[in-house]
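Translate sequence into structure tokens.
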Amino acid sequence: MVPSPYKDSSPRPRFARDLPSPVPLHPLDGSLTEQRAAIFRQVLARRCGRLVVVLEECHDPHNATAVLRTCDCFGLHRVHVVAGRTSFKVNSRISQGSHRYLDLRVHADIAEAYADLRADGFTILVSDLAAEAEVGPDCLAARLQAAPLALVFGSEGFGISDAARSGADGSFLIPMAGFAQSLNLSVSVAVCVYALRAAALSADAPGDLDPTAQIAWYDHWVRRQRPGLAERLEQDRHGQDLACFGGPPSGSR
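Result follows.
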């Protein structure tokens, strides 16, 4: 019997290399393992803020949470969720904790989400089967280079709303060659995000979060890991050092 060449192989490192991090020493670093603190800094160094996903009234917590996990895996930092008439709930078993590390913004309606995106200069495109839709998410790369890009996905049952469609800058679709003309929501998001992120992921390229954002999010993540310790430090002589990190970023859930 020929032994498997993979049986005794070491697992692939999480990252191909160490990227420079602007995050300085943090008063709570000592409460984390050295490996955990390094992972936080290296993940932030690779985070992409120019590409975001918007989910409009996805009522299935399994699918919505799968989208959050996909976005985290592919390095996206921000996700907008339009809850509509129902509350948004994360399925922790599906998320495996990934939702805690996203800039997750929940809105009452699509107009509120679009206003948030417009304020940050995003071009907004909806996933739609309209005749004028741009074919293939890879064709959106030029748009992403020109301006931050938000991709909007509707519910599996009803698709994009008229309000989402009329308020967007255009539409795109995923070309298909089978009898079915639709994909599961989380699969659709994965296809589109990977099409736009594949080159950066393969090259293990740096992300685009500015140093201030990386520092603020590192502080936010560490505080969530050790909330009691953070509170105690703020009450003693280290409080001034902890406060200099700026506290939780605006918009975070």
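Note: The domain at 48-172+183-202 is CATH 3.40.1280.10 (Alpha/beta knot).
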